[in-house]
């Protein structure tokens, strides 16, 4: 497999959007896991990394909307801010993955992931400070909610997503980023 | 399967089933706006009455309409408890340490629970009374203005339609994987964060692999049958609204206006 076709990218995006609904439900079986692991972030980030920024953006927008319609979570009050945050994750992951080529897949994945996680958190914080909680949102609240409380989730995402990407490469479900040339 | 999502399509010949899907989607959005806008007791009562009327018209039954809400009872209890115990107010029932139990908190919690529950019932009714294909068509029509800023709306609608069809299959797969990993000794209920984190890996990686495998098979089948990216002009289908569609839309507008006034 040399490159993902448009149809395959579209269907993989559909799968990631469906996972945005299914993963949080599966995590509800684990006590308090939804808050700790942020399960909806994983498919969006992976979609951006694998399929590119337009698909990552779509996954970030459609995932929480469908999840809200099917399961009622996130609630309508949090939906807009969550859409903005997840859209930023998908968009940045795809964009950075497109432009960064270090010749090492692991390095590319980590650079894109860290950039996406930071950009998403900055955009989410800015949207809360300027739109959703204008005037009552502080820097401390942003650091606490997006870095301290979500630290286990952040670490798990950083550990799990490259592992999933490599597992998918190994299973030949996505193309190898730097194929070994013969000789 | 214990967590098949609510809102799977159920066949029927009610007025709601026969309504134009685009009209149904518009009515749902209007109804949802009304539910979000309501913040008084008569407003909530009107919302509940409206939902009951739609449930009766849909002939889906209260059980189907409330199926998603029932699964969330623990979450609703938690929201209610947290609002009652932590709401910032002067008049409290009882204070102890960081807890401030108050009537205002209880009312605030009830409002949040009612809004979320009503939105869930509404989404559930829309999804139960519309086939995935109908929903794709309706979403395509709703997104039509985005075409002018270069969004490939037909492809986006196709992706959303496929995603909706994937959800029940992936739910079943996720539940099977969870049970299999529990049988192999994964400790999901452990209180230790390290054990909890360790138990997530054997759950998440197989779910992703199974989902991507299924998606890969579907993509190959679609390509083999000649599916390609939508290009060129999208012909907008002419829609003829039935009297039921017109009455439904009118009722929803009136309902929204009543909620604003109340």
Structure description:
- The complex is a heterodimer of chains A (183) and B (262).
- By secondary structure, chain A is an all-alpha fold.
- Chain A has one domain: Orthogonal Bundle (Arp2/3 complex 21 kDa subunit ARPC3), CATH 1.10.1760.
- Helices cover 74% and strands 0% of the residues of chain A.
- Chain A contains eight helices and no strands.
- Chain A has helices at 6-27, 33-37, 41-51, 53-71, 79-99, 105-132, 139-148, 151-170.
- In chain A, helix 1 (6-27) packs parallel to helix 4 (53-71) and helix 3 (41-51) runs parallel beside helix 5.
- The radius of gyration of chain A is 16 Å and the shape is globular.
- The two termini of chain A are 20 Å apart.
- The model of chain A has no long low-confidence stretch (mean pLDDT 86).
- Chain B is mostly helical and 262 residues long.
- Chain B has a domain at 10-130 and 240-262.
- Chain B contains ten helices and two strands.
- Chain B has helices at 15-18, 21-37, 41-58, 62-71, 73-86, 103-128, 132-142, 153-183, 193-224, 243-261; strands spanning 94-96, 99-101.
- Chain B has a two-stranded antiparallel sheet with strand order 1-2.
- Chain B is flat.
- The mean pLDDT of chain B is 81.
- Chains A and B meet through helix 1, helix 2, helix 3, helix 4 and helix 8 of A and helix 6, helix 8 and helix 9 of B.
């Amino acid at each position: 497999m040399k490159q993902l076709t448009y149809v395959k990218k579209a269907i993989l995006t559909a799968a990631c959007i469906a996972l945005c609904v299914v993963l949080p439900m599966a995590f509800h079986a684990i006590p308090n896991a939804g808050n700790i692991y942020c399960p909806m972030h994983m498919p969006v980030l992976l979609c951006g990394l694998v399929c590119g920024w337009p698909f990552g953006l779509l996954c970030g927008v459609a995932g929480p909307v469908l999840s809200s319609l099917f399961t009622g979570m996130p609630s309508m009050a949090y939906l807009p801010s969550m859409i903005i945050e997840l859209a930023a994750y998908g968009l940045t992951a795809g964009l950075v993955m497109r432009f960064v080529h270090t010749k090492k897949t692991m390095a590319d994945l980590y650079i894109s992931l860290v950039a996406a996680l930071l950009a998403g958190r900055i955009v989410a914080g800015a949207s809360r400070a300027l739109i959703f909680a204008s005037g009552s949102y502080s820097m401390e609240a942003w650091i606490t909610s997006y870095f301290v409380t979500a630290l286990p989730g952040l670490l798990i995402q950083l550990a799990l997503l490259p592992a999933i990407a490599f597992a998918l490469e190994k299973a030949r479900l996505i193309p190898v980023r730097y194929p070994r040339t013969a000789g | 399967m214990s967590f098949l999502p609510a809102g799977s399509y159920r066949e029927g010949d009610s007025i709601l089933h026969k309504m134009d899907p685009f009209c149904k989607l518009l009515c749902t959005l209007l109804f949802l706006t009304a539910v979000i806008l309501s913040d008084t007791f008569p407003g909530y009562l009107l919302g509940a009455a409206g939902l009951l009327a739609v449930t009766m018209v849909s002939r889906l039954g209260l059980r189907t309409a409330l199926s998603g809400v029932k699964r969330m009872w623990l979450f609703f209890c938690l929201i209610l408890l947290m609002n009652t115990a932590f709401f910032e107010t002067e008049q409290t029932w009882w204070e102890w340490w960081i807890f401030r139990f108050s009537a205002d908190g209880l009312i605030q919690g009830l409002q949040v629970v009612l809004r979320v529950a009503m939105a869930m019932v509404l989404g559930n009714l829309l999804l139960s009374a519309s086939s995935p294909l109908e929903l794709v068509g309706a979403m395509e029509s709703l997104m039509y203005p985005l075409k002018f800023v270069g969004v490939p709306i037909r492809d986006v609608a196709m992706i959303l339609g496929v995603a909706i069809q994937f959800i029940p299959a992936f739910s079943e797969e996720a539940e099977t994987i969870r049970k299999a990993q529990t049988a192999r000794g994964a400790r999901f209920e452990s209180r230790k964060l390290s054990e909890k984190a360790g138990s997530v890996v054997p759950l998440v990686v197989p779910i992703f692999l199974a989902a991507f495998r299924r998606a890969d098979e579907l993509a190959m089948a679609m390509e083999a049958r000649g599916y390609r990216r939508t290009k060129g002009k999208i012909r907008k289908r002419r829609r003829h609204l039935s009297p039921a569609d017109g009455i439904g839309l009118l009722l929803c507008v009136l309902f929204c206006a009543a909620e604003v006034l109340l």
